[in-house]
Amino acid sequence: MSNESLERIARNKNVARAAARQLSMEQLHKLAEVIGEVIEQKNDEERRRQEEEALKARKLAEIREQINEAGLSVDDLVPEQPKRKRGRPPKKADNA
What we know:
By secondary structure, this protein is mainly alpha-helical. Helices cover 70% and strands 0% of the residues.
């Protein structure tokens, strides 16, 4: 089954029913079990991602607080970037 057909089945209940008619009850139960496992895995991945984002936000807040307590700003920590010259130098340099 292609990704497009799975999306089509997921979007339309009638399409899902038509696809289900082609399967036996045993196959339908197995499909429901597999889909349940996939949903559980996706939920776990999403929960882990949210936990990682929350941890990252907490660490960032702690670092900002420490910077403020030390009387510094983010600009103090980031060195100034050298200014780049734009364009190309002239081919013939005038010595005048």
